[in-house]
Amino acid sequence: MKAFNSNNVIKKQFSLVFVKFAVCFLVLGFAYRLFLSNFEQFSQIEVNHTVFVSNDTLPPPVTVSEPPVAVNLPENQTLLNGKCDLFIGDWVRDPSGPVYTNATCYSIESHQNCMKNGRPDTEYLYWRWNPRDCELPRFSPKKFLNLMRNKSFTFIGDSIMRNHVQSLLCILSQEEQVDDVYHDEQYKSRRWYFPIHDFNLSVIWSPFLAKATVFEDDNGVPTDITQLHLDKLDDAWTGEFDNFDYVVIAGGKWYLKSTIYYEKDKIVGCHNCPGKNITQVGFEYAYRKALNSTMKFITSSKNKGYTFFRTTTPDHFENGEWNTGGYCNRTRPFKEGEVDIGYVDEAMRKIELEEFERASEFGLNMKLFDTTVLSLLRPDGHPGVYRQYHPFAVENKNKKVQNDCLHWCLPGPIDSWNDIMMQML
Questions:
Q1: Is 407 a catalytic residue?
Q2: Contacting residues for 256 by C-beta, under 8 A, at least 6 apart
Q3: Are 200 and 193 in contact (CB under 8 A)?
Q4: Least C-beta-crowded within 10 Å: which of 25, 176, 185, 347?
């Protein structure tokens, strides 16, 4: 029999106690860390936003950029397939300012030339769109023109589309001078040519996308009610669609005009047509019908090009509409949560998203260009009263001052649309 060794027993007992103590310590540490993790996960931080209501001119721009504001994403604005959403983000200060001015770009229309027309504040020029979960490089005209070599890029829609084209032209003209090769009588449909890159850029005037007969004078004042065929698209763009390499297309605010609707050449209703003894069906009915026809045409087209479908652009009239004294004189962007989308814009965007989703089931090469929310946050970027030259000058004191709270100053917020478009390409 082996002799009993008390020292060995004591050593074994001590080792056993030490191991148990170490295991207990590790378990407690893990539990504590798990508790903190859960606490951080379910704790909520409240962010209070103060609505900016001052209309005073702001001091000169700061020389550093502000970080994005931390806010919660709305339920319908989440990351798509794990990738960043270019249309969810914040407007942040950009001390570098625009890449062009009214002195370096000739293609700015007079009613969007806010600098020349005497707008006194410049703060609206020093903001840039910053997607929340990804980087958005500044638009590179050289890179864009190289990408578009031997190609064509066409914008189809209304005056907002023309506004976008002018912004793109101003940026591209810093790289290459362009030739103005075509315009219609009213300069609504136009085409430009970049000879070095053999690149054609054009805009086709088609505010309804569908076939329409419009009765208006040169100032946009209606002389009779518009007639719109919901089941027939506008030949102005459908006849050339197969020849385009890249397209941006959109409907818009023209659907709010007083209009009689036709299908199969028969009246099916109207919008805002008192005294006509026609059933009021509303603009939503017409807009859905026209977009449905548009999507069907695009999906069935032989064109293998790339199409952007742009969503509606909100206006920022306050205390009235364009013809009832509405104005827009804010000088800073909204932050998310400071402004709600209006009924009309929400209804139009809902229809756009639904019709795009239905069309995307066909696997067409079309991307959603959802500029609605980011544009909603920029009430400061419109010409307002500076749609006309020095509206408060002595010689204009007897003239009626009209506000433009729909289109965008150039340079202005719409320039960021091109940053996004380039990134999508």
A1: yes
A2: 271, 272, 283, 344
A3: yes
A4: 185
Residue 308 to residues 156, 208, 319, 370, 421, Cα–Cα distance (Å): 10, 17, 34, 9, 9
Provide the edge-to-edge strand list for the sheet that holds 226-233: 210-213, 226-233, 259-263, 266-271
Q: What is the pLDDT of residue 364?
A: 72
C-alpha 190/C-alpha 155 separation (Å) is 10
| Residue keyed to tokens 């104005």 | 327
pLDDT tens sequence across 105-137 = 988 999 999 999 999 999 999 999 999 988 899
Q: Is the Cα torsion angle 353, 358, 360, 364 positive or negative in sign?
A: negative
pLDDT tens sequence across 339-393? 999 999 999 999 999 999 999 887 678 899 999 999 999 999 999 999 999 998 8
- CA 195, chain centre distance (Å): 30
pTM for the complete prediction? 0.79
CB 102 within 8 A of CB 115: yes
Q: Could you give the residue ranges of the DSSP H alpha helices within 48-181? A: 141-147, 159-172
Cis omega before residue 61 (within 30°)? no
How far, in Å, CA of 108 to CA of 412, rounded?
Answer: 11
- In the structure encoding, which two tokens stand for residue 335, read together? 């932050």
Tens of pLDDT, residue by residue over 276-335, are 899 999 999 999 999 999 999 998 888 878 999 999 999 999 998 877 788 999 999 999
| Residue for token pair 């950009």 | 94
Nearest to 337, CA basis, from 90, 144, 95, 122: 90
In three-state secondary structure terms, 249 is: strand
Q: Identify any residues that bridge with 216 across adjacent strands, giving them in sequence order.
A: 222
Decide if 326 contacts 266 (C-beta within 8 A): no
Catalytic residue among 164, 229, 382, 407: 407
Q: Annotated catalytic, 164? A: no
Which member of 159, 167, 202, 375 is catalytic? 159
For residues 312-349, one letter each, b for 16 or more C-beta atoms within 10 angstroms of the residue's C-beta and e for the rest, the string is bbbbbbeeeebeeebbbbbbbbbbbeebeeeebbebbb
Q: Are 419 and 136 in contact (CB under 8 A)?
A: yes
Q: How far apart are CA 382 and CA 140, in angstroms?
A: 25
Task: Tell me the helix, strand and coil percentages in the chain, rounded to 5.
Answer: 30, 20, 50
